[in-house]
Structures are given as C-alpha cells and as structure tokens.
Amino acid sequence: MKNAEEEYSDAVSSAVAVIWIVNVVFALICLSFYGDTTQDLVLQNLDNGPYLSALKILLCIDLLFTFPVVFSSGRQILENAIIKRERNNASDSNEVQNEENELLNVGLLRAAISSGAVATCFLLSQLGGFGTVANLVGGLAQGTLAFIIPAAIELALSRKSGDASFTKDLPQFAVGSFGVIVVAAVTYFTLKESLS
Fold first, then answer.
1. How big is the chain by its Cα radius of gyration, in Å?
2. What is the DSSP letter of 39?
3. pLDDT tens-digit map of 143-188
4. Nearest to residue 43, comparing CAs of 35, 32, 55?
5. What is the pLDDT of residues 68-91, one digit of tens each?
6. 184 part of a folded domain
C-alpha cells in the first residue's frame, strides 16, 4: 500500500475475495455438521462440555483484544465529527476564547463522547443473551461494512474525481439501499425477538 492511489482497489478486491471465501467455507462446514438444525449462533449447536467452554474462553480473549480497537475507531470518528463542528460554530460566532478554555471544552467533549459510547455498549449488553447481542451488533456492523460503506466510498470517490454519472452511480445506490434494508430488518427482528 505504499502507492495507495494505484494499489488500493486491488488490495480491497483481494481482501474482500479472501474474506468471502473464508465465510462461505465456514458456512458450508457448519451446514455439513448441523444441517437444518443449524442455529443462529454456531456456538449454540455445541453441547456443554470442555470444547464449548474452551471456545467461549477463546472468544472472550478475542473480544478483549478486538473490542478496544473497534471502540477506539468509533470514538475517534465521533470525536472528529463533533469536536470539529463545535470549533467551527465557535469561530463562526467570532467568539475569542483563550486556549485554556478551549482545551477544557475539548477534554469535556471527549469525556462525554467516551462515556456515551461506553453507556451505549453497556445498554446493548443488557438486551439478552450473547446470541442476541452478537446478532444485533454483527448484523448492524457487518451489513453496514458489506453494503453501505463500500457504496458510499465509491460514490464519494466518483464525485471527487468528477467521474460521477447517473448510470455509473445507480448500482452503488442500489447496493447501498439494499444494505439499509438489510441492516434495518436485522436490527428490527433481533430487537423484536429479544424484547418479546
């Protein structure tokens, strides 16, 4: 990725292809083991015992290391969007603040954003069992990452390069719209199942 302008598309295509193949192979293996009785969360297919306990421990270790990375990225995106907007509003109103007050305000905003994100994660964890939370977060995150974000990036890049046209952008709008429908449906049905 030293030359991102020329190598980015190939790297993304390769990464998506590899992940797609791994997911399909995993799904086929699970289907071959459990057939029509495959449950929504593969761990629920396993009987209680040392294998299930070991898998749960390994999953907790995985989450221990991956959750902070994902959480940090989301927090930074929120901070950049909100703090930048607050600074623009302050400069637009021609208010001159001293540097200490500005640093204090930024620190308080960061603390509020982090606290709100942690509170949201805590509330999500109270919805029900692990399967419900995994379905909700997984469906929302994976649907967004698979369908909405790539379409949005492609549309932004085509607008930036001046290569935007209705016929070229229509497939991206279709994929993005499909993603919104998938994410909304997964979220709705998961919440409906967990709250009933």
1. 22
2. -
3. 888 888 888 888 888 888 888 788 888 999 999 999 999 989 988 8
4. 55
5. 777 787 788 778 878 875 555 555
6. yes
Give a yes or no: residue 1 inside a domain: no
* CA neighbours closer than 13 Å in the CB half-sphere of residue 173: 7
- Across 55-63, average pLDDT: 79
Cα distance between residue 185 and residue 181, in whole Å: 6
In a domain? residue 145: yes
**Calpha distance 12→20 (Å, rounded):** 12
Total domains in the fold of the chain: 1
DSSP conformation letters of 143-193: HIIIIIHHHHHHHHHHHHHT---HHHHHHHHHHHHHHHHHHHHHHHHHHHH
Tokens of 113: 């954003």
For 135, the domain range is 127-196
Q: Looking at residue 92, what is its pLDDT?
A: 46
- Give the separation between CA 67 and CA 116, rounded to whole angstroms: 16
For residue 96, being part of any structural domain is answered with no
